[in-house]
Design a protein that fits this description.
The protein is of the alpha/beta class. The protein has 2 domains: about 190 residues, FAD/NAD(P)-binding domain, CATH 3.50.50.60; about 250 residues, Polyamine Oxidase, Chain A, domain 2 (Alpha-Beta Complex). It has 17 helices and 23 strands. The strands form 5 sheets. Strands 1, 2, 10, 11, 12, 13, 14, 22 and 23 form a 9-stranded mixed beta sheet that branches. Strands 7, 8, 16, 17, 18, 19 and 20 form a 7-stranded mixed beta sheet that branches. It has a 3-stranded antiparallel beta sheet with strand order 5-9-6, with no helix packed on it. Strand 12 and strand 13 form a beta hairpin. The two termini are about 30 Å apart. This is Amine oxidase.
Length: about 550
């Protein structure tokens, strides 16, 4: 990079055949595929990756705090696949450690339980074909404060009730996913996940099956969709600055042909997989770190790329910037001129949301102590492979210190507590760490808080859940993906009434200017069936590389 920078500062444009913008998994997949296919080609200036950060990996990242590795980005393989159709990630580093999540406990919503009969709030949906988006406009409540860090007896739900409550909510969401695969795409486009959810038989059955005193907890469980998709269910949970997502995540979100198999947690993180994919690119010395791209003039051949470390030209440019960056590209004047109208429409109509993590790091896993583990075992929902004395991989509960919603039995949506899932990293990685997940508007709320205030909120919440004050953490680490200038969020989603699969396909199509210069796009947001997934970014990087190779023949 020093040579490139010196030449650029001297007034020379450093030229490459192909320049990749971004060293996330899509950019690395593209570059490694291109290098492997052109092993016999000559010339030192064939390929260069320009990466703004001082590291590779993009939204796959880790930090070390108190000697603990914290995976701040992706953690899971979503669908390991099967013998006929394996997930390509399973062939990379076959010795990797992974396993599905085993066992969890559920804590009751801290507010006084109510029988959600729908006497307040507004109906989320009555008929799939008739409900208009404005029927899901509701008020949100301000966060309330827990006045004491002690509670009597804790909030753990007995195992048999917890199993029923979770099972009922999972069946309702599974029914929504089944519906997405069967109804016409035109209907699914204008149907929100929330509308579909409250019309399922499993949703209505749930409020009959779950005991009356736990129906409030059941209603608040459905916020889990927002954690899974990094997408709001309705306008009032949409994060600031993303008004296009106010109609809520659309049913087309689930109308995809993704991989079957388990949802597997990578116990050693994604770092080794990134290193393996990047190996040929690193060996070729093709990555320039800390090189922030400020402008791309795509109208000429070669295309001109301006950076804070000098200027470059290339016959072909592959942009793997996240959708969040592309959404702001107009106001940032990133592309000169602005991208064509069809590209701009596609970028605007797709959703992009935030999922953040709160890591609480301790000197020891206090939840394994008898005083806490005896409480946990009373509510432990075991899987078939979970030992009798094993503690859960996750805790699921709620906090009234963050604003959330509950869905009532008649489909009404009311302001309520926030659903807070916590992963027990000690059982998965051996590290004394608890990791909580927050998404959408709540994620941006957390990002605006000081770490010490977040740590105290987390501690009060755990105290209330267990009814016993646990040890305070030694450290806390909070991801802030919405504030990261090189991601501006976490991953993409489909918005009710706006987004379609064709928008992803539109972004895939290269721009070929009058001089023959080529501007391509790649990333999870371009993937038709695997968006929001690591394997989606991997596959789309390969797709773009194969298209590039065909074009150059």
């Amino acid at each position: 990079m020093a040579v490139d920078g010196a030449r650029a500062r001297a007034g020379n444009l450093v030229h490459y055949d192909t320049i990749v913008l971004g060293a996330g998994i899509a950019g690395l997949a593209f570059a490694s595929r291109l290098l492997q296919a052109n092993q016999t080609a000559s010339g030192a200036n064939r390929l260069r990756i320009l990466e703004a950060r001082g590291r590779i990996g993009g939204r796959i990242a880790s930090v070390h705090v108190q000697d603990c590795r914290l995976d701040t980005g992706a953690n899971w393989i979503h669908g390991t696949g099967n013998a006929d159709r394996p997930n390509p990630l399973m062939d990379i580093l076959p010795h990797k450690r992974y396993r599905p999540m085993k066992g969890f406990v559920l804590f009751q919503a801290p507010n006084a339980e109510r029988d959600f009969t729908g006497t307040s709030g507004r109906i989320a949906g009555e008929c799939l074909k008739e409900v208009s988006p404005d029927r899901t406009a509701h008020l949100t409540c301000p966060a309330t404060t827990i006045t004491s860090t002690n509670s009597d007896g804790g909030l753990l739900i007995p195992a048999h009730v917890a199993r029923l409550t979770v099972s009922c909510s999972e069946k309702a969401i599974a029914e929504v996913q089944d519906l997405a695969a069967t109804i016409p795409a035109k209907v699914a486009k204008h149907t929100s996940v929330l509308q579909a959810l409250v019309n399922t038989k499993a949703f209505h059955d749930a409020f009959q099956l779950v005991p009356r005193e736990y129906r409030g907890t059941l209603g608040a469980m459905f916020q889990g969709v927002e954690n899974m998709e990094a997408a709001p269910l309705l306008a009032q949970t949409t994060e600031p600055g993303r008004p296009e997502s106010e109609p809520g995540v659309g049913l087309l979100e689930y109308a995809v042909d993704d991989f079957d198999g388990e949802q597997a947690f990578l116990q050693d993180g994604y770092g080794p997989i990134i290193d393996e994919i990047a190996r040929p690119v690193v060996e070729a010395g093709a990555i320039a770190l800390e090189t922030v791209v400020t402008r791309v003039d795509w109208t000429r051949n070669p295309i001109v790329i301006e950076t804070r470390r000098g200027n470059f030209t290339a016959r072909e440019v592959v942009c793997t910037f996240p959708l969040g960056v592309l959404k702001d590209s107009g106001k940032d004047a990133l592309f000169v001129p602005n991208l064509p109208a069809d590209k701009q429409e596609a970028i605007e109509r797709l959703g992009f949301g935030t999922l953040d993590k709160i890591f609480s790091i301790y000197s020891r896993p206090w939840w394994n102590d008898e005083i806490y583990s005896s409480v946990i075992k009373n509510g432990l929902i075991r899987t078939e492979t979970r030992g009798e004395n094993d503690l859960p991989d996750s805790f699921l509960g709620f906090t009234s210190e963050l604003s959330g919603i509950s869905v009532g039995r008649n489909g009404s949506v009311s302001p309520d507590v926030y659903r807070l899932p916590i992963v027990n990293l000690h059982s998965l990685t051996g590290q004394p760490v608890l990791c909580a997940f927050v998404s959408c508007k709540t994620a941006t709320t957390i990002e605006g808080m000081k770490d010490e205030d977040i740590s105290r909120l987390f501690h009060r919440t755990l105290t209330q859940w267990f009814g016993i004050e646990p040890p305070r953490p030694d450290a806390v680490h909070v991801t802030r993906w919405a504030q990261d200038p090189y991601s501006r969020g976490s991953y993409s989603h489909l918005i009710t009434g706006l987004s379609e699969a064709r928008h992803r396909e539109t972004i895939q199509k290269p721009i070929i200017n009058e001089g023959g210069g080529v501007l391509r796009f790649a990333g999870e947001h371009c993937s038709r069936d695997h968006f929001a997934m690591v394997h989606g970014a991997l596959l789309d990087g390969w797709r773009a590389a194969d298209a590039s190779l065909r074009h150059s023949q």
